[in-house]
Design goal:
Layout lengths: L5 E4 L2 E4 L7 E2 L14 E4 L5 E4 L1 H10 L4 E4 L8
Antiparallel strand pairs: 1-2, 2-3, 4-5, 4-6
């Protein structure tokens, strides 16, 4: 859910998504995303990457021509 919605200062991190109230007492900004992959993003050149809900939402808002597809939970991908 968090994706690019994370912000931080002073060793604390929080999610700015209005539906999320989570925060952490450490700096998560430099860490790899630990959220489960829920979507595949395919860019205009056909390259794909699996991402969490938050990164998929951010990509939908930022990437022109990207195709965002939900992973099938019954296939064990989510």
């Amino acid at each position: 859910m968090h994706g690019n919605a994370l912000r931080g200062t002073g060793g604390r991190t929080w999610c700015t998504d209005p539906t999320c109230t989570r925060s952490w007492d450490y700096n998560r900004l430099g860490n790899a995303c630990g959220e489960p992959a829920t979507h595949t993003i395919t860019d205009a050149e056909g390259e794909t990457i699996r991402v969490c809900d938050g990164h998929a939402k951010d990509a939908a808002n930022r990437l022109d021509g990207a195709v965002i597809t939900a992973l099938s939970s019954d296939a064990g991908d989510a």
